[in-house]
Amino acid sequence: MYSRYKHPQRGYLLCLKSLAVTILMCMVIPLSGGCSKEDPLEIEEARVVMPIRMPMPKPSAPPVQDEAGEIKGGAQGQPSLLPEEPSETLGEINAEEGYYRVQKGDCLIKIAGLEEVYDDPIKWTSLFRVNMDKLDGMEITEDFHNLELPEGLDLKFVTESVAEENLAKLGRQVYAVNVISAETSKKIVPRAITLMKNGYNAYICVAVVKDKKWLRLRVGFFEGYSEAVEAGEHIKTVVDETNLWIARVGNNELKQFGGY
C-alpha cells in the first residue's frame, strides 16, 4: 500500500500546486511593495531635527538704526533700510516716505493689510520689528497683533523699493529655523514678539499640508545649514521650544518675507 505522499499521481499534483503558489507569490509581492511607497506629492519638505547641545550665549541687542537709515547688527545681521523721520505734512499715510499715522481703531494686522503699506496682514511682524522703539511697552498677549494702537502714532514701514534692496543684499541666505507650527495664532504670536525683542528676524508664513492650513513661526535668514542650526540651538532656550527644524525656503517665501 502506498502512503498519500508516495502515491505517484498525488505527488505529481502536489508538485504542480507548489509551483503555482510560488509563481503567484512572485507576482503579488512586487506589486504590494510598490503601493507601500510614500507619495512624493504628500511630502511638503524635508525636516531635520536638531541635536540638543549646551545653550549658546544670548544674541546681541536688537539692530540699531544709523544716521543713514540702515539697520546694522542684531542676531542675524540682516540688512534693512528704513525711511527718514516723517515730514510735518505726513497726513494719514505717506507711501513714498514709508510712514503711516495711526487712526482710531487701528491695529498692527489691520495696518499691515492696507494696500499702501504691505497689502498683507501676516506681515504685521515687520511693523512691530521696525517700530519696536514705540511699541515695546505693549503687553505681550496671544492677541497682540489685534490690540488697538494709540491714535496719532507715526509708524514706519518698509516700502516696496526698499524691500527689493534688502532682498538683493540678502543674496543666497535661504535657510530658516522653523520654531513652531500651529493651526491658530495663540501660540505663535507671543513667541514671535519674544524672538523679535531678542533681536531675531521672526516672521509668520502659511502652509497647507493635506488640505489643512498651518501657521509657521520662522526665523531667517541664514546662508548655511550649520549657521541655522547654531541659531536654533539658542532660539529654543529663548522661547522654550525643542521641536525646532531647519527649512530651506523657496523663492516665493524668500521674496515675500526676505526684504521686510
How much is the radius of gyration in Å?
28 Å
* Overall tally of structural domains: 1
Q: What would you call the structural class? A: alpha+beta
Along the chain, the helix and strand elements come as HEEEEEHHHEHEHEEHEH
Report the sheet with the most strands, covering strand number, pairing sense and barrel closure: 4 strands, antiparallel
Relative helix content? 25-40%
Task: Give the CA-based shape.
Answer: globular
Q: How many DSSP helices?
A: 8
Beta-strand percentage range? 15-25%
* Low-confidence spans: 1-8, 24-90
Extended strand count:
10
In the sheet with the most strands, the strands line up as 8-9-7-10
Summarize the structure.
This protein is α+β, with helices and mostly antiparallel strands and 260 residues long. It contains 8 helices and 10 strands.
Topology of helices and strands:
Blueprint (H helix, E strand, L loop, with lengths): L7 H28 L28 E2 L4 E3 L7 E2 L11 E2 L4 E3 L6 H5 L11 H7 L1 H4 L18 E3 L3 H11 L4 E8 L5 H10 L4 E8 L2 E11 L2 H14 L6 E4 L2 H7 L3
Antiparallel strand pairs: 1-2, 2-3, 4-5, 5-6, 7-9, 7-10, 8-9
Written account of the structure:
The protein is an alpha+beta fold. The chain has one domain. The protein is 33% helix and 18% strand. It has helices at residues 8-35, 108-112, 124-130, 132-135, 160-170, 188-197, 225-238, 251-257, and strands spanning 64-65, 70-72, 80-81, 93-94, 99-101, 154-156, 175-182, 202-209, 212-222, 245-248. The strands form three sheets. Strands 8-9-7-10 form a four-stranded antiparallel beta sheet. Strands 1-2-3 form a three-stranded antiparallel beta sheet. A three-stranded antiparallel beta sheet has the order 4-5-6, with no helix packed on it. The termini are far apart. The model is unreliable at 1-8 and 24-90 (pLDDT under 50).
